[in-house]
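Weekly modeling sync, notes
Attendees: AB, CL, MP (scribe)

Item 1: holo prediction request
CL wants a bound-state model with zinc ion before deciding which constructs to order. AB pointed out that an apo prediction alone won't tell us much about the pocket. Agreed to run with the ligand included and paste results into these notes for async review.

Input as submitted:
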Amino acid sequence: MKKRKRKPNKGTKAYEIWKAKLDLKKKDQVWSKTVRERDGNKCVLCGESPKALNAHHILPKEFYPTLRHEEMNGISVCPMKCHRREAHWNGVVFAIWLQENRPEQWAWVVANRKLRMEVKKVKKVKGEGGE
Ligand SMILES: [Zn+2]
């Protein structure tokens, strides 16, 4: 049986975290919709318009949290073929495509790429206890 997550009580730390996550999710959805509508609800690479069209972050949101909801940082791609394979696995080719087909977006990427933040991965050290 699946346990249903309960909404934490207002005023608690858990509530703040829950609320922040929810707000981020809502912002993501608005951003994604804006990007997809701008691109005519089509994959910019292959022209297909699947139900689950993705908005891809050109500058990854993990390293560019401040650009997470910038319209210029998004591009519409179909989920598997173009998002996974072209945009993520074939990054160099995708960058060239962007440069040739979306010069204004490419210029934006070049101008903003310095905003990359150091993201430290927190590793759990096993067997050290005491914390
Ligand atoms: Zn596609």
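Recorded for review: The helical segments are 13-38, 79-89, 91-101, 103-112.
Action items: CL to compare against the apo run; MP to circulate these notes.
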